[in-house]
Amino acid sequence: MAENLGKFVSPPTFAASWEKNTNSIWLATTLTLHRNIDKFNFPRQLDTEKRRLVSELVTGPLKEVPSLAGVQILPLDALHPIDREFLTEHFLLFEPVRDNQHGQDFVTEQSGTILIQINANDHLELHLVEPSGELEKALQRLGEIEKGIEKHLPFSFSNQFGYLTSDPCQSGTGLIVNAYVHIPALVSSGGYHKTLAGEHQEGLLFTSLQGNPEDLIGDLLVIRNRWTTGVAEEAILASIRNTVQKIVAEEASLRTKIKGEKDTLFIDHISRAIGTLQHSFTIDTSEALRAISQIKFGVELGWVQGITIEAINELFFDCRRAHLAKKINPELYSTPQLYNARAEFFRTLMAPIALV
Length: 356
Fold this sequence. Notes:
By secondary structure, this protein is an alpha+beta fold. Helix content is 42%, strand content 16%.
């Protein structure tokens, strides 16, 4: 595959990576604003020429937004598949980029926390990753980008329905918020469903990385707002934050209890996870994520030594296909050999790790 890289644009580069953090339970939140340019059909109803026109109209104002430094315009059809998937993983996008239509672009900037999709489902999808829980500041930053574009291009807006989107369920504010929380104690103890039942709100959706709330791969729970119409942006953020904080408190309380009791069931789960990553010769992403989750759990309980929280948090990304291939060997991307390479990567990395 490497011999074909020359026909593609340069891969995205970031000055830093938000993936390196010391977050314990509330790992990150993503905010997405959906917008469409007035007088244009939605992207899937546009021909190539019109999509390219939309892209040109949008990218000009984007380059003038003061808060965006080091802007990179990445045409999707000129971006290597490994880089498309890398961006999907890095920005925690739920929908993989399947279409390869002309006039569809990615826009990145140097902080590595903002991704702008042009001509995907909507003309504009403004994505921001917030690892510190400062949701209002994150929304304000997205608002600055939105205003920078709207000064030049009016958005499709209805007095009755708000901002218009290709998916009517995302009209209104057009704001989708996803909070990612790591809850191994609640999952391992079986208290996960009881906790969520107690926190059930009609306006929220509980799911997983794969979209299946019954299978929390990596013990990662995703909390998302269900509605965007008839509810203010501030109310969406408050609802997400309040629910996350309650779940974080439950998880933290249970971790304290488990640490004090030193239940051998939890120690066994963690020990098996260490063994899996230290001795496997082939491993897929899901199995790796489950093991990483248990080891992170052990580190935070003080039961595992030899790796930092920052390093283990980064592994939630480095075990995934595009991140792993870019890190060790891009030629292995989309090959069966990547399963073996992933196992070798973990055998080396986990060698010094042990139960205390």
